[in-house]
Amino acid sequence: MTIAQIIVFVSLTWLIVELVRDKKSPGVLFAIVALLYVMLDYISLPNALKQFTNNGLVTVVVLLLLTIVLDKSRMLELLANGLVRGPYRWALVKLYGATALYSAFLNNTAVVASLLGPLKGNREHSASRLLMPMCFAASLGGILTLVGTSTNLLVNSLMVGRQLPELKLFDLFPVGILIVVACGAVMVVLYPRLLKAQPPAEDTPSDYFLEAEVLAGSPLIGKTVEEAGLRNLGHLFLTEIVRSEHLIAPVDPDRFIQAGDLLVFTGDVTRVDLLAQFNGLKTHGHHDDLPLDNLIEVVVAAGSMLARRTIREVDFRSNFDAAVIAVRRGSERLGGSIGNTRLEVGDALVLAVGQDFDKRNNLGRNFVIVRRREVQKFVNPRKGWLSMIGFIAVIGLSAFGVFDFLKGMLLLLALFLFSGLAKVADLRRNVPWELIMIIASSLVISEVMINTGVAKLMAGGLLSGAEQFGPYGALAMLLLVTWILTELMSNNAAAALAFPVALGVAEQLGLSAMPFIMAVLYGASCSFITPYGYQTNLMIMAPGRYTFGDFVRTGLPVAVAFLAVALLAIPVYFPFR
What we know:
Elements: H1 3-21, H2 26-39, H3 45-50, H4 55-70, H5 75-83, H6 88-103, H7 108-121, H8 131-141, H9 150-161, H10 173-194, E1 208-214, H11 225-228, E2 236-243, E3 246-248, E4 262-267, H12 273-276, E5 281-282, H13 284-287, E6 294-300, H14 311-314, H15 316-320, E7 322-328, E8 348-353, H16 363-366, E9 367-374, H17 381-399, H18 405-419, H19 424-429, H20 433-451, H21 454-463, H22 470-488, H23 491-509, H24 514-523, H25 535-541, H26 548-573
Antiparallel strand pairs: 1-4, 1-5, 1-7, 2-3, 2-4, 6-8, 6-9, 7-8
Helix pairs in contact: 1-2, 2-20, 4-9, 4-18, 5-7, 6-8, 6-10, 7-8, 7-25, 8-10, 9-20, 9-23, 10-26, 17-18, 20-23, 21-23, 22-23, 22-24, 22-26, 23-24, 24-26
């Protein structure tokens, strides 16, 4: 073994250990190893820098920027209540199918975030029986298309970097749909017994509270809270009604709504869009004609003119070009009208702000600006539908070869910017810097592993235990190794590390690289048996009251079905020769 190979082995071992320890950002770790190889002249600097212009990497960045807009559509959330109606098994089939289909084209994390609130608040079935299959369906849907998950796009970038044929949008679908159907069947058969109803988690007492006024002529007037659809908002919960000088709490579902009522909600303030769907129901920001797409969170500063005064007394709009959307005071549960709340130093406020807010010279004396909160969904549902229609049109036209997929994505991004559906500031804040570093660095690492012969040596070690089983044994071994890696670290990191080994295995056996690359691609999405393997698993852990054992018990059958179908189907659609 040469000195270069020893250094590469040692650096890769360090990288894997650090990724498993999860103490530092994966992007930083990959960049450190790539920089080491550049400094040691294992790859030239111009060649390393060229990886940042890789066609696959550009596609990843453009697509993720587009999903900032697409994630704001409320289509799936609006369907949520209908999906879980009926007997549990039928609800499971509907929820699983819809979630998998949606996540085939959009960010898995955004899909889970959209459904988390509605499923947690539904009254048909316990959240603990719905969140796990929904989360797994979102992960599985990602293997149906090239754009279903960033891992697919990362592998495609690595393929482009090695001058291999670029994957097309639906190349993954034949194998992916077989895996999705098989895993779905396992869930439908086993989950009625494996997933038990759990009592809901207690809501944190520190939620913001926000209010909306029922205007004269609103179609809500004369309806009960239940009939008006105000009890199943998922992310927001109606806790009180302020009627003249009277406070109605708790709010019964058969309570009638009257003109002039102030409806007081608690929950996630970034879901103020949920109130915008009701005609004649106006928040403070709507009253003041302020945009609700981006909100600013502030804390009342010591010495502020706001201390010990109500919001109504301050004339907020004139002083700050802003309106108070929501208020929070530590762990204390506030109530009543926001306008009559007497503020204290340290109170947290969420403001809808006008164009002049940042120009006011009194901000520093009154507020400590904590952060800008982007509303998670379009306040205007029409924008959500337009963004989805545009995306579906580009997908369809590129699938039929009318134009290149990347060109279509660039055109759609330009149209979003021109129409105001996307803002330059939003895109700049959400550039996926870490993913860019992982992909570009992994392209460098992959090339060094192949050029120094390390990939070939690792492939030989992997094959030593699978030679007697031929190509299927090698494919099974690669699937298992990638699966184990993705349970220990991020799926992108697992795919980046396993990719050059897959090329080495193909070279050793004298076979096509495609089935082994596909084993890496699919295996990196098989993360079901721990809550730490994928961020969506962590997102559902607390709301579903799940334990580590729940993930092992319910995830293992899904992982076994996934790997078995992948092993059988990959060689059929991606032949060894």
